[in-house]
Amino acid sequence: MKIAIQHLYRPSHEGDGLLYAWFSSMHTRVDILLYSQKPEEELMSVVERIHAALSYLEKIANYYDPASELAVINRTASICPVILSRQLYTMIDLCMEYHGKTSGCFDVTVHSENYNPDTIHSVYLSAEERSIFFQQPGITINLSGFLKGYALETVRAILNTCCIENALINMGNSSVLALGDHPAGTGWKVNFGNRLETDKIGMKQSVLLCNECLTTSGNESDGRKHIISPHDASFVEGIKQIAVVTKNGAVGEILSTALFAASPEQREALLVNLRPLLIDYFLIGY
């Protein structure tokens, strides 16, 4: 029988303990470090809550699972309005809001049939009914460029409820939440972009995070093409990556995806317009 959650625990003489746990979720590996005076059993219960919460998010918002709530919506919302769970409504509503804030560079409808930049305007959300309706057939919503960032904020809420002040959550090295401090010092040092080719000597490949999120979008090889341009519905090509540091993981995931999908001119404009939301950003391979 496969063990869903594995972990190691190391106590210290000062009463603090470091728990390292890992498991698979959302098609990636999730690594969790919790540094606290709480006993091992209590820290493991926190990890189990996180595992359950991520499993639930995947159940409702996995584009590729035909049984997910999102998949059902994609099949039926063009026939009649569909009532959404509160969490899925919140996610889609936030994505629709940031479509406007990113000048259309973040678009969850890019996988729709006969997609064009106006497709998203055929998605109708009713706050009063908490429902969604597609005003034309063939529309699909894909939250893959957003879900892990939203998951980080879900994890943050669990850690706050459980009074865990020092933690590092790493989802596939592309979505990271850092709270408080590492046992050996201030903040958490996180590496990124080290697998990408770059001709920029001295390019920064790590960042110190403290109560911040690091989210990245990009291609690590010529064969990796997974982000679709909202301008011409083609895959964004090239070995390059964008990393952003933000206070909010969901917003960070949106911004890294939008900046990667944007044209050079749009990227410059977005970096100016969205600067209040960005603590830092890195363009690698450009």
From TrEMBL:
EC main group: transferase
EC number(s) given by UniProt: 2.7.1.180
Catalysis performed (reactions): L-threonyl-[protein] + FAD = FMN-L-threonyl-[protein] + AMP + H(+)
Stored Pfam families: ApbE
Record keywords: FAD, Flavoprotein, Lipoprotein, Magnesium, Metal-binding, Transferase
Gene3D superfamilies named among the record's database cross-references: ApbE-like domains (3.10.520.10)
Cofactor: Mg(2+)
A GO MF term: transferase activity
UniProt-recorded name of the protein: FAD:protein FMN transferase
Taxonomic lineage: Bacteria, Pseudomonadati, Bacteroidota, Bacteroidia, Bacteroidales
